[in-house]
Structure formats: structure tokens, C-alpha cells
DNA sequence: AATAAATATGTAACCGGTTCCGGATAGGAG
DNA sequence: CTCCTATCCGGAACCGGTTACATATTTATT
């Protein structure tokens, strides 16, 4: 059926071992032989079978990626970063959505291992981290962090602080923080940080809870302005929630940013096309993914690295949901 | 290192062949033996190595998925549909983004084959379809269609017609169709269909070009209202473009839907959280993905199917970017 | 020219499963 | 009791690569 290394060997008049050696640039091979083999490979359009290779070597060219939900626009950006970086080095991605469920995470993890993946990049909660700790292949956490494992993430404390500082600076006196689910650590951290910063500023603070998803946010947010009719500044736990809030604000006749100012978190693509453009705290999602991939690759190549916790900077992106300084 | 089938065999006091038989429920195995083997498997926490299995069987539990760009929110919905359906049956997904580039498509396709994937789901342009035609594993096209290959897609003609009919019905007299890149077949088809329908309705038609991406749409659309200041109805080639248009409309002081009505295409999640909510033509993306997965699985299981072209229905989803009938 | 070292290549075992085949045992029919 | 068949199970080959090892040839060294 498919062309095997022995077909190539026969065509080139050598043994399979020799073909393998020229293929991998290992061991010796006479220049003439090398040429003959290369010709045969080309002539037969031979592509080595990764599965056989993987079986013997006990390592594949596959990396497993576990994300909560690729349907949430923050995660595709991460995934693209990972994938693009990986492709450069010839690695491929097996992907699994966990919906934050431990059971699904374990399920994917198991099958990743069964497929001899050489590394795993995962975005899972600390409470679920046990399953990742005793693997004998490299693991890098992405977006989430756990003390004992390498991780790539954005500076949530700085982000929360930045958002809080901005909204105070911009003159808001009664600020509502929309808090996402506390189990999601980065989301919780940005909340805590905003809250502390706001308290130090001596401003009135409301806390309002919301889900993170499109559906959830849109529902959660409906009662926001009933409950806090006088808020003039809102710190949302992510951009989706922020957009839902903008919607609700406009629906209830509030002008943005004149009556309410809103700051999101993440800087997903939506921010720049909604009206008004959403000011937000940018997490460099694509770069985070790329960085995680880079670290995994280094680890796969046996480069011993310290237990890296790679914290990437966030930044405030000013658009139109906040006032210009000086207004 | 990892537990192998021979470890289990030794533990259970039988041969590897016997373990394999109970594992696969093939051939005979005495009830007592079966129990002993199962116990051993459980005791050692044995998980069979998919790679070894795949090498011998010449087929894995892997399906390859090629999408243009997972960063465009329409595609994650497809991917989730595929993945969820596949997981049910124990298949895993290798994923690759092509950015519509033939070179990358081929690259991913090659490595998918090298990994013994049993099937491929792909969203590629007709012009690139040659590479898919002579594979000896099942292929299903998703979102895009090619005459000679099975495909799952939404009814673009109906969608285009529906949007056009609605916008006319809703009283628009000068309608602008935002046309996406003509190489992308479904996008082109919905354009043609809308255009024809509009022409039959005898209404004034403008055609305006735009990219499909967030960045692209946002730029393209900036000159829309300079060029056609009197349009009162807009048919966008997708929801991203539609939202960008809404932005531009509001920025230039137009009220939606009083001054301009806008209809998008796709029904991505954003539609329901922007303000005003975006009326759109819904493609059942998740279901499309699931259906494609279902077909691939059937084909993998040797069920001979006709050259299925599975056309899923679209529907108009009314939100607030169009007027209520009767207004 | 003799010897050592470097180069070149093939044989065979191995990775961890699956399956063909054949031998052994048990149960049933005659 | 014999014979046949169904059941049970292990040995060994195989999937398509890689690599340790052995052997053969070339090149360098003195």
C-alpha cells in the first residue's frame, strides 16, 4: 500500500538501515549512497511513517493541548500561538476541550499519553492539577498557574490594579466590579487585585457576579443596573462580559463613556469592532501560546530549565468605552 | 517504564495474545482467564499503547481537521461540534490552521497521513481540492463543498435569499451588499443569491467589498458611508463585518434600525451581546461539525455511503438591528 | 608495508501491540 | 469408549521504522 522504508531501500539498492541513516543524518553514509537514497525517496515520494518512528523512539511529534473551551475567543488566540510556534519545529497538536471538567481533562490526558505525545500544554484549575504532576513528559500550564509546574501566564495582579487605577483616574466614584467564577484562578486574581486597589482609593465599590460565557454573561448582567443604578464605572472580568454590560448600559439609556465607563479584560478581537470600542486590559494571548510552545519544545529537547514561571506583561488599551484623560 | 501488555500478561499468568483477546473481545477467552486479565489490567492501571496498535492495524483513532483560521469565531463552533461527536466514539482530533494557504494545507495533510489518521475533515477551497481527491482514507468537506467529495454545509443560496427578502420586506430601498472575498465559495454564493433576489425586487443595490477578518473588516468598512451615505439596509457577508458596520453606522450618527438596518451571516455568539443585537442568518455551525464527524465515523467503519452532500438549513434570527415587522 | 582509525553498510533485534496458526483440553454425539 | 467439534490459549510473525553490533573497506600514520 503505502511506500515503506524497505521499498526505498530496494529502489536505491541498499538496506533499510542505510535509508534510515541518511534520513536522520545519523551515522555514516557515503555521498554516492546518500544521493541514491535521496533520489529513490524523491522518485517514490516516500514519507516516513511517524507512527512506526514514534513506537520505537517512544516519542512522537505530537503535543497535547487541553483548553477549557475553544468557543471562548480568548482560547483560540492561545491555541493559534501554540500551533504556529509548534509547526515551525515540525510538531503537531492534538487538542481537547475540557469545559473545566476534571473527568474530561483526565480522559484527554490519558489518550494523549497513549498516543505518545512528547509534551502537554494545559489550561486547568489548580484543583485539578494532581493529574499533571507525576507525568514523565514535560508539562506547561497556560493561562493558569500551579506552584510546582512551569507556566506561562499574564500578570493578573498588575492587570487588576491597572484597570482599577484607570477607572479611578477617569473620575468614577461608584465602581462595580463584575466578578467571574472564583474557581478560575486568573479571573479571581484580577478581581482581588482590582478590589484592593479600589479600596485603597477610597471609592464606593459594588461586587456583581457573572458567568464568563456569552450566554451566561448576557443573562447575569440583565439585573446589573437595577441593582446598582448609580454605578458610573465598571470593571468586567472579561471582554465578553464587558460587551454584555455595554449592551445593557445602552439598552437602559446610559451613554458610554459619559454616563458609565467600562473596562474589559483580555483584549479579544471583538473589542475593536463593537461600538463604542471597548477599553480593556490586554493579555498577550497569542504570545502566551507561542511562549508555552517554545518552552515545551526546549524541554522536549532535554534542555534542563528551571521551573519557569513566565509572567507576561499586560497593558491598558484605550478605546472609547472610557473617557480621554482630561475630559 | 510504562506498563505493556506483556507486563499484564505476566501478572495474570497468561500470554500477551490472551490479554489482547480479552482487551478486544476477539477470539475465545475462558471466563476465569478473562477475569484474571481484567484484574491485572486494573491492578497495574494498564492503558494500551495506541501507537503500537495503530502501527499494526494501519489505522489510528485520530482524525485530522483542517480549518482556515480558528481565530475566526465561526470555526471554533464547527470544531467543537466535530470534537464532541468524535469523543463519543473514542476518536481524537489533530488540528491545523491553513489560513487558506494551499502550502499549509498540504503540509498538514501530509503529516496527518504520516500519523495514520483514519479520516480527514477539511474546510478548503475548491481550487485546492486536488490534494484531497486521491487519498485512500475518508474525507469530508466542512462548510466548503466540492462536487466529487462528500460535504456538510449550510444552504448559502437560501441564506442569501432569506437575508435579501427580509431586508426588502423591512422597507429598505437602497441596499448595500458587503461582499467578501470571491474565492471563498460559500461567501460568494450567499452574495450571488442576495444580489439576484434584490435585483428581482427592483431595489437600488450597492456592492461594497470587505475582508472577513476583524482587522480587515474594521478597516474595509470605514469608507462605507462616505461612499453610500443613503443606504438604509445592509447585508453583510458575515457577522464580524456586520458588527464592524454597526460600529461605523453608530459612529457616523446613524440609528439602528431606524436609519439603517443590518443583517449579518453566521450567527456567532457575538450577535446576542452587542448593542443592538444583530439580526442574522444562522448557520448551524456546531451541528455542521457534529454531522461531519458522524459521517466520517460511519465511513471509517466501512459503511459504504453515497457521495453525501449534506445541506443543512439556515434561518433568519431576528434581533434588534432590523425593525419588527409592522413598524 | 603494517597497523590503526575512520568510514560505510548490512543483519538482526526491538518498540508494543495484533493475529494467524496449531496444539491441548473439554464436552457432546454415536 | 471413540471421534468430532467447540473452546481455550500460547508461539511467532508482523506493522515500519531505529539502532547496536559486526563486518568490510578505505584512509591515515609511522
UniProtKB/TrEMBL annotation, chains A, B:
Cited CDD domains: HTH_LacI (cd01392), PBP1_Qymf-like (cd06291)
Listed InterPro entries: HTH_LacI (IPR000843), LacI/GalR-like_sensor (IPR046335), Lambda_DNA-bd_dom_sf (IPR010982), Peripla_BP_I (IPR028082)
HTH lacI-type domain: residues covered: 3-57
PROSITE patterns: HTH_LACI_1 (PS00356), HTH_LACI_2 (PS50932)
Keywords of the record: DNA-binding, Repressor, Transcription, Transcription regulation
UniProt superkingdom: Bacteria
Matches recorded under PANTHER family: LACI-RELATED TRANSCRIPTIONAL REPRESSOR (PTHR30146), RIBOSE OPERON REPRESSOR (PTHR30146:SF95)
Name the record gives this protein: LacI family transcriptional regulator
Organism field: Oceanobacillus caeni
Amino acid at each position: 500500500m503505502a511506500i515503506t522504508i524497505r521499498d526505498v531501500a530496494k529502489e536505491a539498492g541498499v538496506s533499510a538501515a542505510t535509508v534510515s541513516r541518511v534520513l536522520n543524518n545519523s551515522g555514516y553514509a557515503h555521498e554516492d549512497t546518500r544521493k541514491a537514497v535521496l533520489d529513490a525517496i524523491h522518485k517514490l515520494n516516500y514519507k516516513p511513517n511517524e507512527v512506526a518512528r514514534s513506537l520505537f523512539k517512544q516519542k512522537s511529534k505530537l503535543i497535547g493541548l487541553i483548553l477549557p473551551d475553544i468557543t471562548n475567543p480568548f482560547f483560540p488566540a492561545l491555541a493559534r500561538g501554540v500551533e504556529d510556534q509548534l509547526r515551525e519545529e515540525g510538531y503537531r497538536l492534538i487538542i481537547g476541550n475540557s469545559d473545566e471538567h476534571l473527568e474530561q481533562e483526565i480522559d484527554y490526558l490519558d489518550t494523549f499519553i497513549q498516543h505518545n505525545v512528547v509534551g502537554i500544554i494545559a489550561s486547568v484549575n489548580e484543583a485539578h492539577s494532581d493529574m499533571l504532576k507525576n507525568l514523565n513528559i514535560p508539562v506547561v500550564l497556560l493561562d493558569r498557574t500551579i506552584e510546582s509546574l512551569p507556566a506561562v501566564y499574564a500578570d493578573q495582579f498588575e492587570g487588576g490594579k491597572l484597570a482599577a487605577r484607570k477607572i479611578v483616574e477617569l473620575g468614577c466614584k461608584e465602581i462595580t466590579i463584575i466578578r467571574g467564577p472564583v474557581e478560575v484562578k486568573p479571573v479571581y486574581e484580577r478581581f482581588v487585585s482590582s478590589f484592593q486597589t479600589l479600596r485603597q482609593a477610597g471609592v464606593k465599590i459594588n461586587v456583581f457576579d457573572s458567568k464568563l460565557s456569552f450566554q451566561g454573561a448576557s443573562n447575569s448582567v440583565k439585573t446589573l443596573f437595577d441593582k446598582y443604578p448609580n454605578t458610573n464605572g465598571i470593571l468586567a472580568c472579561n471582554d465578553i462580559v464587558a460587551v454584555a454590560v455595554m449592551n445593557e448600559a445602552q439598552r437602559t439609556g446610559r451613554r458610554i463613556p459619559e454616563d458609565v465607563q467600562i473596562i474589559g479584560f483580555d483584549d479579544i478581537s471583538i473589542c475593536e469592532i463593537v461600538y463604542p470600542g471597548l477599553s480593556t486590559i490586554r493579555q498577550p494571548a497569542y504570545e502566551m501560546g507561542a511562549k508555552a510552545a517554545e518552552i515545551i519544545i526546549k524541554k522536549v529537547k532535554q534542555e534542563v530549565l528551571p521551573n519557569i514561571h513566565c509572567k507576561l506583561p499586560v497593558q491598558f488599551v484605550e478605546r472609547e468605552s472610557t473617557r480621554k484623560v482630561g475630559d
